[in-house]
Amino acid sequence: MLLEKNFEARVYNKILGKYLYLKQYEYTMPKTTDNKKPHKSNIHEV
């Protein structure tokens, strides 16, 4: 039971860590998402 609980906690921490990392990436990189909009219009020009 102890090993199973530790394994579940480890998996949960990995998932939570990935989720927080992705959220942090979204917050730290808002400029790139804004810059993607004009790039789409550039593709239409080509």
Helical percentage? over 70%
Count of folded domains: 1
Number of helical regions:
2
Mean pLDDT figure: 72
Order of helices and strands: HH
Q: Using DSSP, what is the number of strands? A: 0
Question: How would you describe the shape?
Answer: rod-shaped
**Gyration radius, rounded:** 19 Å
Oligomer: single chain
Instruction: Label the structural class.
Output: mainly alpha
- Distance from first to last alpha carbon: 61 Å
As a percent range, the share of strand residues is: under 5%
Largest sheet: none
Describe the structure.
With 46 residues, the chain is mostly helical. The protein has one domain. Helix content is 93%, strand content 0%. The protein is built from two helices and no strands. It has helices at 2-28, 30-45. The chain is rod-shaped and about 40 Å long. The N and C termini lie far apart (61 Å).
